[in-house]
Amino acid sequence: MRTWLAHQRAALSLTLARLGDSPVATLLTVLVIGVALALPASLYLTLDNVGRLAVRLPAKPEITLFLSDSAKRGELAGLLGARRDLAGVRFVGRDEALAGLASRAGLKDVVATLGRNPLPDAFLLTPKSTDPQALEALRQELARLPGVARATLDSAWAERLAAWLALGRDFVLVLAGLLATALVAVSFNTIRLQVLAHREEIEVSRLLGATDGFVRRPFLYLGTLQGLLGALLALALLAVAVLFLNGRVEALAAAYGSDFRLEGLGWREAGALTALSAGLGWLGAWLAATLHLHRH
Fold first, then answer.
1. pLDDT, tens only, 107-147
2. What is the DSSP string of 89-156?
3. 69-81 pLDDT per residue, tens
4. What letters, b where the CB count within 10 A reaches 16 and e where it falls short, cover 24-58?
5. Cα 118 from chain centroid?
6. Is 198 exposed, middle or buried (0-12, 13-18, 19+ CB in 10 A)?
7. Class of the CATH-defined domain 62-154
8. Which has the higher per-residue pLDDT, 149 or 132?
C-alpha cells in the first residue's frame, strides 16, 4: 500500500511540475474546457429558472366541473374543499355564468334572445400541480364525483410550457454530448503533445522496466487536473453571470410585484459537472497515452 501511495505521489508531483513548465498552454486548455462546460450549464440554469418562474406565475391551469341538475352542491363543495391537491375552489352559478357571458362584447344581444338559461352550475378548481400528466389524472378523477356531468381542463399553456422545457432539455443534452466529445478531443490532443514532448523519457523508463501503467499515470493525472481546473473555471463563470444578471432580474421582477431572482447551480449539479469534466479529461489522457504506448 505504501509503495502504491508513493507511486501516486510521485506521479502527481511530476504532473504538477509539467503543468508549471507550460503555464500558457495549460491556461489556454483550461479556458477552452471552462467555456465549453459553461455553455450547456448556462442553458440548463436558464431552463431551471424558467421552470421555477412558471410555477410562480399568477396564471394557473383550471379544472371546470359542470354539474348535473340533480347534483348536491353543498355535498360536492365539501368534498372538493377537503382535497389537498386543490389550491382553490370557486362556485359559479348558472345565473352568474350567464351574466358573465352577456357582459362580453358582441354577446349581449345573443343572450337576450335566449328563452331560458342553458348554462349549468359549475365549480372552478385551481390545482396545486402544473404537471400535465398529473392534471389530466386529477381531471379524470374529479369527473367521476357524484353530480359532475363533465370535467374540462384548461391547461393549454402548461402543456406548451412543458413541451418547450422538454425540447430545451433535449437540446441541452445534445449540446452537452457534442461538447463532451470536443473536451475529450481537446484533452487527447493536449496529452498527445505532452507524450511526444517526453517521448525519450518514456522510452528510457520502459527500458528500465517501467510498466505501461507507470508511464501512463502522470498523463492521466494531467488530464484529470485539467478537467478539474476547467470545471472550476466554468463554475466561476456561471456564478459571475448569475450575480451580474440578478440585478436586472430583481429590478424587472419588482416591477411586477415579485421577488423572483436567479439561482445558480446547487452542490449536486456543481459536483456532477466537476466529476464529468475530470472524467472526460481522464478519458482523453488515457486514449492519448495508451495509443502512443501501443504504437511504440
1. 555 555 665 666 788 888 888 877 778 888 888 888 888 88
2. EEEE-HHHHHHHHHTSTTTHHHHHT-SS--PPPEEEEEES---HHHHHHHHHHHHTSTTEEEEEEE-H
3. 777 888 888 888 8
4. eebeebbebbbebbbbbbbbbbebbbeeeebeeee
5. 47
6. middle
7. alpha beta
8. 149
Residues near 83 by Cβ (< 8 Å), separated by ≥ 6? none
Residue 151 has φ and ψ, to the nearest 5°, of -125, 125
More confidently predicted of 177 and 105: 177
Question: In angstroms, what CA-CA distances link 232 with 17, 42, 184, 222?
Answer: 20, 14, 17, 15
274, 273, 291, 258: which is closest to 192 by C-alpha? 291
Q: What is the rounded CA–CA span in Å between residue 255 and residue 258?
A: 7
Q: With helix as H, strand as E and coil as C, how does 237-275 read?
A: HHHHHHHHHHHHHHHHHHHCCCCCCCCCCCHHHHHHHHH
pTM for this model (two decimals)? 0.65
**Secondary structure class of 66 (helix, strand, coil):** strand
Nearest to 33 by CA among 201, 295, 224: 224
Residue whose grid cell is 396545486? 128
Let me know: does 274 contact 232? Beta carbons within 8 Å. yes
Q: What residues have CB less than 8 Å from 253, skipping those under 6 apart?
A: 259, 260, 261
State the Cα–Cα distance between residues 203 and 133, nearest whole angstrom.
63
Residues 60 and 126: beta-carbon distance below 8 Å: yes
